[in-house]
């Protein structure tokens, strides 16, 4: 999560370790669930964009 915000890898790893050992297990699990949902949403959006471009190119080939 920190790496996507352009935090250096060293700082991200250090902070993630501190967060993991400081917050409750419940909070840690909720953060993991949130990250998974965000990644899934990004994947779906990218998949749709790629399919959209493929569909556009097929339609263009028929129109020409």
From TrEMBL:
SUPFAM superfamilies: Iron-dependent repressor protein, dimerization domain. Pfam families: Fe_dep_repr_C. InterPro entries: Fe_dep_repressor, Fe_dep_repressor_sf. It comes from the Bacteria. Residues 6-48 form the Iron dependent repressor metal binding and dimerisation domain. GO terms for molecular function: protein dimerization activity; transition metal ion binding. This is Iron dependent repressor metal binding and dimerisation domain-containing protein. It comes from Agathobacter rectalis.
């Amino acid at each position: 999560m920190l790496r996507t915000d352009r935090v250096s890898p060293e700082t991200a790893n250090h902070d993630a370790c501190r967060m993991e050992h400081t917050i409750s297990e419940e909070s840690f699990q909720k953060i993991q669930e949130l990250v998974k949902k965000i990644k899934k949403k990004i994947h779906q959006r990218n998949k749709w964009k790629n399919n959209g471009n493929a569909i556009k190119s097929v339609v263009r080939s028929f129109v020409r």
